[in-house]
Amino acid sequence: MKSFHGTLLLLACTLICGCAQTQELPQKQAHPNVILMMADDLANEDLSCYGSTRIETPHLDALAGQGLKLNSYYAGNPVCSPSRMALLSGSYPARLGWRWGVMGYGFPPKSGMSPKVYTVAEAFRDAGYRTAISGKWHLGRKNMSPEEQGFESAYYIYMSNNQGRDMYRDGELVQKKWDNRLLTETFTEEVIRVINEPGEDPFFLYVPWTAPHFPADPHPDWHGNSGEDKSGKYTDVVEELDYRVGQILEALDEAGKAENTIVIFTSDNGRQPGQSGPSDKPPFSGGKWQSLEGGTRVPCIVRYPDLLPEDKENNQIVAAIDLFPTLADACGVNIDLPEQSQKLDGVSTWANLRGLKSELARDELLFWHGKGRATAIRSGNWKLHFNYGAKPPEDPELTDGPALYNLKTDPMEKNNVADENPEKVDKLLARAKELLTDIYGNQVPLGTWPGVELEEQPIKASEVWGPWMK
């Protein structure tokens, strides 16, 4: 492991040598802490700062008022496990051997994210950070557990809260069948414990909440506040989550660490079909599992006092795969990928978020349905669906050819303008084919438990991209 003090010396030399080109950071911000929070199945219409009039989220609203609200942020996949793979690896999940579904439903038995994948936690650990997770893992057991993927302190459940709630600390079972109503509170208490740990080294803290993933079981202190039906219970769960975020922000203030901590709040995908929330009109079509905008276009709020704009909105495309290189850039962390690890698909958006660079860091993005088919590509404001996803739930039915939408004027993806723009369709088809050929041709296969071999061979791009890509 690299020493933190050695990293500081290297960073200091870099800043001195590069002061003619870049603005030198204040000393207190040279190596900031990071808290990366990710809700589970939370949609844009669930936060009042993103337009909800039926769910009150004052703490997240305040966080948005102190930082940047990203309006074109995309989760890594429309379902849980591959979305987490993307966030932690900086790569499209298909590049990491993902075929379809999630752990426990779709993944081969005794498999998960390969130990060969170099995670953001490993990069920060190797740079001298204290790394910790408090929340839902959902990426594998044994040699694929959090402890084996860069987290020095790990407090977690292995699966989704509907699949099992056995609680572990650093690989050891703490308690079987943790009360679902108390998970958000419990994970928050662990986050606050890590924040208050003594020591000079900065921390990287990953908080993958289980809320508001089904079943929506409100904490006793919230139960009934919004009614006893599904909608009321869902609202109570989200409003508790907002309160817990407020507790974490308050703990940062009390510890004197708020000014030197990058805080990110986002979600892993859109709302689960059948998960009944309040009936505010969604800004996008689709939800979890789908490659329509509502499947992956989710809230994302970023705060870093003094260096990021306050109370601003950013409309540039930013994806979960970008957070690894972006945070590394912001924190002076080197990404030294081992020889057999993954190729990064993410790019650093740090200069763009700070307003120091007008040229877009990202102008295109690929999409997959949760059942595994590559389905769409976005370039600028244009989004082309080149393959029918799956059902249920289904993406647009493509019977006569690809479907093209202008997201600037048609964010609900209702008005197919492919016939009026044949050259744009051909260009996007060619670009999608180029990207997918590279991704499926340069994969790190899924990992397996020791002694277990995958029976399935790596999938090929031509198996997932549909009939109109030749």
UniProtKB/TrEMBL annotation:
One Pfam family cited in the UniProt record for this chain: Sulfatase
Keyword line: Calcium, Hydrolase, Metal-binding, Signal
MF terms in GO: arylsulfatase activity; metal ion binding
Biased composition (Polar residues): 267-278
Highest taxon above the source species: Bacteria
Residues of the signal peptide: 1-22
Family: Belongs to the sulfatase family.
PANTHER family with a match to the protein in the record: ARYLSULFATASE FAMILY MEMBER, ENDO-4-O-SULFATASE
Region of interest (Disordered), residue spans: 267-292
InterPro entries in the record: Alkaline_phosphatase_core_sf, Sulfatase, Sulfatase_CS, Sulfatase_N
UniProt keyword DNA-binding, yes or no: no
Protein name as it appears in the record: Sulfatase N-terminal domain-containing protein
Sulfatase N-terminal domain mapped to chain residues: 32-333
